[in-house]
Amino acid sequence: MERIRETPRPDYKARIEALGFDFHDAYWTEEAAYVLTASEVEELEKATRACYEMYCEAAEYIISNRSFAELLIPEEMEEAIRASWEEDELSLYGRFDFAIPSDGGAPKLLEFNADTPTSLLEAAIIQWQWMQEVHPGKDQYNLIHENLVQSWRDIHATYGCGRYYFAGDPSVAEDASTLRYLLSTAQEAGLPTAEVSIRNVDFDATHNFLLDPAGEEIDCLFKLYPWEWMFEENAEACRSNCFFLEPLWKSLMSNKAMLPVLYRLFPESPYLLPAYRFPTRLGGNYCQKPVFSREGGNVTLVRDGKVLESTTGIYGEGEYVYQARVDMRSFEGYYPVIGSWIVGGEASGIGIRETRSRITDNQSLFVPHYFI
After folding, report:
1. Any bridge partners for residue 221, and if so which?
2. Ramachandran quadrant class, 284 (left: phi over 0; alpha: psi -120 to 50; beta: rest)
3. CA-based R_g, the chain, Å
4. Where in 104-247 does DSSP place strands (E)?
5. Residue 250: what pLDDT?
6. pTM
7. Residue 189 near residue 153 (C-beta atoms within 8 A)
8. pLDDT at site 24
9. In the predicted model, what is the mean pLDDT of residues 61-87?
10. How far apart are CA 302 and CA 77, in angstroms?
11. What is the mean pLDDT of residues 334-340?
């Protein structure tokens, strides 16, 4: 894997905005690209499959042993999560974040964005357009779009909902763009769709229904809104007669307290870093992360007992997990994190974000890739 310099397309801003990518300033870059080998792509695909299998086994462990409290799951949600898992409710997508260690070893799992992952449009569509126009003879590890469309067909064949609602916070540009893109993939699959603000979704407690602003029942809701926020705001609505995407069982996997569970169950995995609920066993070299957080908020890196780097955010009030600090490989002073997408249960492609910090947050750059 190497990072190479590139010359941006003269009209790239207009071209990516035409694809719906309207929040790209200081985020998307065409001044560089990452070049991987076919064997490196195969290793990332293998790591993604292995990590998804481990997460599924860990979810089964939590549910079978009624260990929900270990993940800070409210007791009132336990049976609904169990039912979602036992009914094998379908999942649409998720993103594993991997670090590349400086020693050349296997990619190391940092976390699983299992519930509300973004960076999707740029991974699925924008970098594909870039490659076709800039390096038309190359290839890219990217089956994200076609697998999303097929997953929607599978979901509709299973549930046959009358309409698929897409809800999020329209004031957040990246979330709004992600929702529009996912809605377009459902439409490409032939599904009837509607878009609604999450704040305009009502709950009919008498009939246990979710309702749209017109008072119509919502039988399928894709929500780009974290489960833990929904549990806190209206747990009863989370148990309504609605098929949710992501399904309730994904609330176990999106929870960073699952990292210590994974390491306890699979300590020999080459992809896992040691992780615990307390830092004492990590010898003063660790990453401290909130159990519930997004976009790298409130993360602290500690080396030899001293703070190396940290970020601020809105997640600092809750509990933390502690993961061994990986010595990340640097490329011209940048530290890439590889987001590996799982769509419909299948490893489907990657997107790479980089920053000069060792903590990838919402100030990172998205850099396209191809492989040879």
Report:
1. 165, 244
2. left
3. 20
4. 108-113, 164-168, 193-197, 202-204, 209-211, 217-218, 220-223, 243-245
5. 99
6. 0.96
7. yes
8. 62
9. 98
10. 35
11. 98
Nearest CA to 144 out of 124, 130, 125 is that of: 124
Cα dihedral 54, 60, 65, 70 sign: positive
Close Cβ partners of 157 (under 8 Å, ≥ 6 residues apart) = none
Determine the pLDDT at residue 362. Answer: 72
Token pair listed for 305:
């007992």
Exposed / middle / buried, residue 254 (Cβ in 10 Å: 0-12, 13-18, 19+): buried
Question: Which neighbouring-strand residues pair with 335?
Answer: 355
Rounded-to-integer distance, Cα 212 and Cα 127, Å: 35
Write the CB contacts of 288 (distance below 8 Å, at least 6 apart in sequence). 279, 299, 300, 301, 302, 320, 321, 322
Q: Domain residues of the chain, as ranges?
A: 2-256+328-371, 274-324
Percentage of the chain modeled with pLDDT above 70: 99
Q: Which residues contact 185 (CB under 8 A, 6 or more apart)?
A: 145, 148, 149, 152
Q: Label the pairing between strands 164-168 and 193-197.
A: parallel
Q: Rounded to an integer, what distance in angstroms lies between the CA atom of residue 154 and that of residue 159?
A: 9
pLDDT at 296 over 80: no
Whose tokens are 């870039």? That residue is: 130
Q: Is 357 helix (H, G, I), strand (E, B) or coil?
A: coil
Q: Is the pLDDT of residue 149 over 90?
A: yes
pLDDT per residue over 88-144, tens digit each? 999 999 999 999 999 999 999 999 999 999 999 999 999 999 999 999 999 999 999
Burial 149-163 (b: 16+ CB within 10 A, else e): bbbbeebbeeeebee
pLDDT in tens, 352-364: 999 998 988 777 9
Max Cα distance, the chain (Å): 60
